[in-house]
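INFO  loader      accepted 1 record
INFO  loader      residues=216
INFO  predictor   begin
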Amino acid sequence: MNSINPLESLDPSLTSLPQKSDKNAEVVDQAEFLELLVTQLQNQDPLDPMQNEEFAVQLAQFSQVEQLIDINQKLDGGVNGGDFSSLASYLGQEVWLDSDVVSVKGGDGGTVAFDLDQDAADVQVELLDSNGNVRELINAGPMSKGTQRVDLSELTTVSGDYQARVVASSAGGETFSPEVSIAGLVNGYIPGPQPTLLVGDREVDTADIKRVQLPA
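INFO  predictor   done
INFO  writer      dumping tokens
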């Protein structure tokens, strides 16, 4: 796609600016663009003034210039190229968060993940409120030793934050509780001075990630 210079429609005699040693001569900032536009209006032929349509086009071009400058300023002040690569490498990967807090919205609590160091005859996931009361119990059934996940997409408890706790029992009746993590796929990232990853609709600091792996 060919790029369009927003200054092409201006009178060429008005687009020459003093050279600046600390700036690319082809770069025109907001103030200079506005100065050129005002100068053109002041020097236009009274018998052949600029048409409304042409003026509207130049104002629209000026708005585009402002937006581009704003975007570049944000990028310059935030993530550099290396950081972009680092953040992009998370896309599509499953991450485990160093947190056991489940955020329930509309009956959906995402996914909890944990490692079983032995086979479990029965596994239950408990959601606890701030007082330690069990607000919902999810029966996951028997599970094998290794990495396991439980989907919490059909909850009946009200929306809010709950602590997730896994209670497993062996065939011999022994009860144990593996450490729980919140798991999810990275579907985006937000660059900036403090970049974050998007896991569903949750913003996550990379410092809060304890494991990264291919999706199950």
